[in-house]
Write a structure and sequence with these properties.
alpha/beta, seven-stranded mixed beta sheet
Length: 298
């Protein structure tokens, strides 16, 4: 067995640089002074040959081009076995439309997420006779690629922005926001790109994990407000911040987790600057800042 992971995209929605943003990070990335990052996605294999992609980023075409493990091995033969979707956010489902060229693979998701896709007729471009839609129940292991098992579990979160109503529950538990526990033989890893808070169930699941890729959207809860880029806090968007007493660094303190990697980082997050004080603090706390192309062996 060869259990491996590759970060296809380390940024949150919009990527780095974001097309309409003139913040410090975006300007540095445009100038080539810090690395650009595509939007949130990772790939896992349990045997070194067949791959499952977790979340279909709008940047998936470029991500596949940049990843030799996902290149075609024949005229219409790919190592891609499936795509698993952890929520209905645009940065996690829009890339499905790029995969519409009659290529066989399976889409794994909860019924709640599949319902979101089915209610939007544009996703019928994925021919149902070729692309199978597999409904996954929470807390039930399923094989998403040969030798690779995945178990979906609820984490605190919210519905996608385009489904919000007048009142928004930002840390609801259910099928709309899930984490993934991946296993191949005696090795395992967790992928949680969106999480509103650490609760007792999640803490218990993650204790002793060898690898956790976790929501790193913002460094500070009011980061975007202070930057003059919006009025929403991280909590309002359904994301924990990295710093602060309620942040993920504090939440993981004391948890025996081997390799902990931040993914899904917003373009404003100062940890995206390699020489920033915030990045140094995260790394001193035992965290790795994910980047496009990073390969991990759990």
């Amino acid at each position: 067995m060869e259990f491996r992971a590759r970060i296809l995209g380390a940024a949150a929605g919009g990527g780095l640089p974001q097309w309409n943003c003139g913040c410090e990070n975006c300007n540095l990335a445009r100038a080539g002074k810090i690395p650009s990052q595509t939007q949130s996605s990772v790939a896992f294999t349990g045997n070194g040959k067949d791959w499952a992609v977790l979340n279909a980023s709008p940047d998936i075409r470029q991500q596949f081009a940049d990843c030799p493990d996902l290149h075609p091995t024949g005229l219409r033969t790919l190592p891609l076995h499936s795509v698993l979707v952890t929520n209905g956010d645009i940065d996690h489902v829009a890339g499905l439309l790029t995969l519409r060229e009659m290529q066989p693979f399976s889409i794994f998701a909860t019924k709640g997420i599949h319902d979101v896709l089915e209610e939007n007729p544009v996703f019928s471009a994925l021919n149902a006779s070729v692309v199978r839609r597999e409904t996954v129940s929470l807390d039930t292991p399923v094989e998403i690629a040969p030798g690779l098992m995945a178990e979906l579990f609820a984490v605190p979160g919210k519905v996608p922005l385009y489904l919000e109503g007048d009142e928004v529950e930002t840390d609801m538990m259910g099928e709309q926001t899930v984490g993934v526990h991946l296993r191949a033989e005696d090795k395992d890893a967790f992928y949680i790109p969106g999480c509103a808070r650490m609760n007792d169930d999640l803490r218990e699941r993650l204790a002793g994990a060898a690898l956790v890729m976790f929501d790193g959207t913002l460094w500070a809860d009011d980061e975007m407000v202070r930057a003059g880029l919006g009025q929403k806090t991280g909590k309002r968007m359904g994301h924990m911040s990295m710093s602060g007493p309620d942040g993920s660094i504090a939440a993981f303190d004391g948890l025996k987790v081997g390799n902990r990697i931040f993914v899904h980082m917003n373009n404003t997050n100062p940890v995206l600057r390699p020489d920033s004080e915030e990045r140094a603090k995260a790394e001193a706390a035992g965290w790795t800042i994910g980047r496009d192309g990073m390969e991990i062996t759990p």
